[in-house]
Amino acid sequence: MATVQVKNLNKTYNPTTIPVKDISLTVEDNEFLTLLGPSGCGKSTTLRLIAGLEEPTRGQIMIGDRDVTALKPGDRNISMVFQSYALYPHMTVYENMASALRLRNMTDGEIKQRVSEASRFLDLREDLMNRKPGQLSGGQRQRVALGRALVRQPDVFLLDEPLSNLDALLRERVRAEIKQLFEKQNTPVVYVTHDQVEAMTLSTKVAVLYEGNVQQLAPPSELYSRPANQFVAGFVGSPQMNLLTLHCQGQTARLGQGKLPLPSGLAKPPRQVVLGVRPEDMRLAEESDSIRFPGEVFLVENLGMQNLLSVRLTPAEGGAAPIEVRSLLPSDLDWGGDNIELAVSPERLHWFDVESGDRLG
């Protein structure tokens, strides 16, 4: 097996177009790293640099103990699965899976064994092996693309948004298959997506990218529970985190009619701060809650097992206009009409600097 190391990777097209800015990361054996971010953040360019499909402006790419920065894609011993599947339309399933092995001058017996093992692993029935891609469903074509990658037994797997062309139900099923598939491999995986559900469910580590920079590199649970900055907080999580700019009064910040304690250890209390609170962490207030946020429900979105409530919090006397928040409550919970009182546990709050966006505390 081989570790993938990316050191100070940069790609510059011109002074105003720099999709990758000094990215460094490591993917160990048996690790599944997802590059996550919005369109144009540099995630696909980073993957193409690792694959050798693009040449870096500067930086180094190591696979195992080999410096592959200047090597052609075919000399890196990688397998790549593309968004468009990239299957040969005139070849059968068997021929598509075997094509890369023929280039290695392997014997027919060796090729047949590898293709047979991969097809059984991916549940590609024998009657499909003589069909051409045009005769397959989207999910079957995706399995063939994965099978073609598996038979090569590469040092690293690279996957570029492989589920984006599938409908929602099929995407969910194939996502589960990919997770089971790569849990049985010891090979490093680098996966690109803008879909946070894919990133959170598939990965052992996630690198959140924005404007060519890594904003945070961490396990999925840490991204969710302790986002490093305001961008990660707003990008990771569905429904999106409530991000509210609040005025501070000493060591507290006012939200509606409630006062919240600022995180301890601040050298100097700020004048303003950004509060982040996830909709699923806002709940109906109970008698034991000392901090409550009365408000008015103005929109209810039924999500099946839960309702997403949009609430205008009642401002303090003489305060500014009402602040709007969203709260995720069980669908069988009766909140008592248009008026509601919400609460949140202090340990569930996230605080960010207004100017830098970095996490406080």
Topology:
Layout: E1 4-11, E2 20-27, E3 32-36, H1 43-51, E4 58-63, E5 66-67, E6 78-81, H2 93-102, H3 108-121, H4 138-150, E7 156-160, H5 168-183, E8 189-193, H6 196-202, E9 205-210, E10 213-218, H7 220-225, H8 230-235, E11 242-249, E12 252-255, E13 258-261, E14 272-277, E15 283-284, E16 293-302, E17 306-313, E18 323-330, E19 339-343, E20 350-352
Parallel strand pairs: 3-8, 3-9, 6-7, 7-8
Antiparallel strand pairs: 1-2, 1-4, 4-5, 9-10, 11-12, 11-14, 12-13, 14-20, 15-19, 16-17, 16-19, 17-18
Helix pairs in contact: 2-3, 2-4
Brief digest:
The chain has 361 residues and is α+β, with helices and mostly antiparallel strands.
Number of helices: 8
What's the number of structural domains?
2
Order of helices and strands: EEEHEEEHHHEHEHEEHHEEEEEEEEEE
Write down the CATH topology of the largest domain.
Answer: Rossmann fold
Average of pLDDT: 91
Beta-strand content bin: 25-35%
What separation lies between the terminal Cα atoms? 39 Å
Low-confidence stretches: none
Overall geometry: elongated
The largest sheet has its strands arranged as 6-7-8-3-9-10
CATH evolutionary superfamily of the largest domain: P-loop containing nucleotide triphosphate hydrolases
Q: State the major sheet.
A: 6 strands, mixed
Helix percent band = 10-25%
Write down the Rg.
25 Å
The tally of beta strands, per DSSP, is 20
Q: In CATH terms, what is the architecture of the largest domain? A: 3-Layer(aba) Sandwich
* CATH class identity of the largest domain: Alpha Beta
Coarse structural class: alpha+beta
